[in-house]
């Protein structure tokens, strides 16, 4: 299976650390990721109304481009990209009217657009590209057991709380990755890294998503509740997959502290940072300077190498 | 005061909602699981199950005037817990769509303070503009 990597806008913008540690971790696993050429925006959200089909164009164009470049699957780290691409893919495979409208539009668009070098004619797209999230790809292509064996740094004693967020889980029948109420994928991954995985009830909650821009008080309350719960259950750090969860949970902690002096700050980590760390990456390669709450002091004690296995 | 619509008017509103959201809102049992699970039901002036009930009654004007539809973060918790599988996020999105169709919801990105947009991840801005904008 030939897999193309789709970073998406945020991983080239505010979440560079997620993109860089994704590449770093995969390289430390002895593999590499090839970015799809000329990628564009994924659309970020799935249109929920039947009329808003123009909001499927970005997804369709991107998925067709991936197929036309010879890839069987597209793997992405950002849950927003994952969710909208996977859902659009299902729509294109199963909804004949939307599929025809999309393909008719995109074929015309390609024909009429004034290209310097005209691309080949549009080939109808009906959901051929598989859409995978990085966690799924790591599980299926490498296996969590392999990660466990490849780990050069023991993370034993690091109490991590996995936070799934919304876009990885729901709607579960379409995303088909985890049980929406009792997911285990993230726990299995973190367990394979040797960490002490904390079970906390808010791991499947919503952090407030884009409400942190439009209705900041509401998102702040939601995020604060998640962090309080994680801390109360003994977590040293909350681990996320999503740049927006990261932003909501990390960036606003100063404000949470202003609102409640009892609030205890919790460093937030991307799952790829922890993976790269376990595979032997030095701290200065993890992009930790982009964090508001510095995880450095917490992670320092986990950079001691397992005897006899010194990373190159 | 709650309006009571004529049966015809009500039926038309329900049918239009069905057509645009692809959701059969008449299946709703008012069990309240959506509201119980919603992370923002406390911030809303109408709880999610009330949104569905009002949509059943065709009270679209009241829904258009509510704050609740702007607090939906489309996290799909309600959708995943609904025993009759109604996508309530889609119902809320149709109400936002109505406002956009009426030209009453032209979302002004300038209205958001710069302090909130300059550090926000790109995905937050793209999805916000898509959900709130046109």
Overall form of chain B: globular
The share of residues in extended strands of chain A comes to 5-15%
Radius of gyration of chain A: 20 Å
Which fold does the CATH topology of the largest domain in chain A refer to? Rossmann fold
Helix count of chain A equals: 15
The CATH superfamily name of the largest domain in chain B is Alpha-helical ferredoxin
* Fraction in beta strands of chain B: under 5%
Question: What share of the residues of chain B lie within helices?
Answer: 40-55%
> What structural category do the secondary elements of chain B indicate?
mainly alpha
- The portion of residues assigned to helices of chain A is 40-55%
In total, how many domains does the architecture of chain A comprise?
Answer: 2
E-strand count of chain B = 0
Strand order of the largest sheet of chain A: 2-1-3-4
Which regions of chain A have little confidence, pLDDT < 50, spanning 5+ residues? none
Overall pLDDT of chain A, averaged?
Answer: 95
Biggest sheet statistics of chain B = none
What is the number of helices of chain B?
8
Identify the CATH architecture of the largest domain in chain A.
3-Layer(aba) Sandwich
Give the CA-CA distance, first to last residue of chain A.
30 Å
Number of strands of chain A: 8
- Quaternary status: heterodimer
